[in-house]
Amino acid sequence: MEQRISLVTLGVADLGRARAFYEALGWSSASTSEEGVVFFQTGGMIVALWDRGSLAEDSMVTDDGGWGGVTLAHNVGSPAAVDAVLTEAGAAGAAIGRPGAETFWGGYSGVFIDPDGHPWEVAHNPGWVIDEDGSIRLP
């Protein structure tokens, strides 16, 4: 696994309020309200806002107030690369929270949980561009 983070997703209680806050800071997004998630291009990576309960469920963690509502993501170029990173993480001591599989949003992803309990989604999103240096761009 390369030493980089592609996407940080923040779990939020109210997507509209959270979007308004980040837009008030000068951030902009082409995401529409109907998508249920907001993506912000932040240099070579992306910050997303998503419903906190949905994020906890997708990340295979229980949100009992102690979890910070954040999932880290590592995007790769293919479903096979997702599986390879999950295998590598498992071999390094991570728990596999969700094996690689097709997703509801049209990609392929799985989740590993590091020894300290931090969930990482490993994902292939066929609609996003990953540059040679590992930076990620929204279309």
Distance between the termini: 24 Å
Number of strands: 9
Please state the CA-atom Rg, rounded to the nearest Å.
15 Å
Write down the secondary-structure element order: EHEEHEHEEEEE
β-strand amount: 35-45%
What is the compact description of this entry?
This protein is of the alpha+beta class and 139 residues long. Helices cover 22% and strands 35% of the residues. The protein has a seven-stranded mixed β-sheet with strand order 2-3-1-4-7-6-5.
Layout of strands and helices, then pairs:
Blueprint: E1 7-12, H1 15-24, E2 37-42, E3 45-51, H2 52-58, E4 70-75, H3 79-91, E5 95-102, E6 108-113, E7 119-124, E8 129-130, E9 136-137
Parallel strand pairs: 1-3, 4-7
Antiparallel strand pairs: 1-4, 2-3, 5-6, 6-7, 8-9
What does this molecule look like?
The protein has helices at 15-24, 52-58, 79-91, and strands at 7-12, 37-42, 45-51, 70-75, 95-102, 108-113, 119-124, 129-130, 136-137. The chain is α+β, with helices and mostly antiparallel strands and 139 residues long. A hairpin with a 5-residue loop joins strand 6 (108-113) and strand 7 (119-124). The strands form two sheets. It has a seven-stranded mixed β-sheet. The protein has a two-stranded antiparallel sheet with strand order 8-9. It is globular and about 45 Å long. The two termini are 24 Å apart.
